[in-house]
Amino acid sequence: MNTAPHYHYIMIIEDARDERDAAQLILEDDGYHVIAVASGEEALAYMRMVDPLPCMILLDLMMHGTNGWEFRTEQLRDARLASIPIVVCSGDGRLPEKASVLGIVGQLEKPIDTTALLALVTQHCHRAEGWHPVAAGEQPGNGRRAAPS
Fold first, then answer.
1. CA angle at residue 68 from 96 to 135, to 5 degrees?
2. Residues 6 or more apart in contact with residue 29 via CB below 8 angstroms
């Protein structure tokens, strides 16, 4: 099991720009740093290059390219990434049965309920001692690689 610490930023993997931007705004307004990407491929490439890792991933299941299912399979194959908690979001009415197969920590129906999202983040992204809201332009981690623009 991976015991590497997870920094207190959240990764959003969502191909729909409006939904990605909305989730990012909710989380940033609550003081979290967010890395938002449009595909599973982009997310995997980013996480394999950076340290530290996100404390949680908000994952859309239905995407072009590497979809949420494929992303989760690849994530679990990578020992360094496997322990990052996943919250799946989808507009699919059968989300509960689909999500249970993925071994995830939470699920959200689209459109995302702000209160439910923030409750899941609080549950999985505990604010460390000395935590402070992320200032505009601040980057998480050790400077190994900055967030994509």
1. 100
2. none
